[in-house]
Specification:
Oligomer: single chain
Structural class: mainly alpha
Order of helices and strands: HHHHHHHHH
Distance between the termini: 26 Å
């Protein structure tokens, strides 16, 4: 198993912009590091779940069933569109004494975690990624479980690291979102990004 080739693939895959990264940026900018990092954990847990599914062969079953694959893809896309519309239409709460000063309404830890988990688990392309990639780096003459643990753990660490970096950078923007107009544009941009991701996922015809 050429581990360093796999590591390079993981770095590129987890550093590239996608729904999980933009959700982390949104959470970091609006709710701060402490709450956003919970979302990062939710996404990483989703990735480990998908890796486990692929490891036991269910990923291949899903890919072999166009109906099941399409169903997961559509559900994931619609959820991203929902998040986009929700962000676009969100109404911020402002201090009564200062109509321009924002008072952030922070969601619960469970909500942040579950939202990120659903975004991660409903991405069928991740199943395809694991199903296609894992066999290339697993030597059947060696203990498979240990190799799987190494591969899945490496991807999880890379994902956690890059998402955390984005959260840290985004949390620095929080003070700049205290103005009504700034927050309105931020909500529209993040909402538009999620709607775009969701629309692309739903309309994609290839596995």
């Amino acid at each position: 198993m050429d581990y360093f080739i796999y590591l390079g693939i993981c770095i590129v895959a987890t550093a590239s912009p996608g729904p999980a990264i933009f959700l982390s940026i949104k959470n970091g900018a609006k709710y701060g590091f402490a709450r956003a990092i919970i979302g990062v954990v939710g996404n990483v847990v989703a990735m480990l779940t998908l890796a486990s599914v692929s490891a036991v062969g269910l990923g291949a079953v899903i890919l072999a069933s166009p109906f099941l694959y399409t169903g997961i893809k559509v559900i994931g896309g619609l959820y991203l569109i929902y998040l986009g519309i929700k962000a676009w239409c969100s109404k911020p709460i402002f201090h009564a004494k200062n109509a321009e000063k924002l008072a952030f309404s922070t969601p619960s830890r469970l909500k942040v975690f579950s939202e990120s988990y659903v975004v991660g688990i409903s991405n069928p392309k991740a199943i395809a990624f694991y199903t296609a990639l894992f066999p290339q780096f697993i030597n059947l003459d060696q203990p498979v479980f240990l190799q799987f643990a190494l591969l899945a753990g490496t991807f999880a660490i890379c994902s956690f690291s890059f998402l955390t970096i984005y959260v840290v950078l985004a949390s620095k923007l929080r003070n700049h979102l205290e103005k009504r107009k700034t927050l309105a544009w931020f909500n529209r941009i993040t909402g538009g990004v999620f709607i775009g991701f969701g629309t692309a996922l739903v309309s994609s015809n290839h596995v």
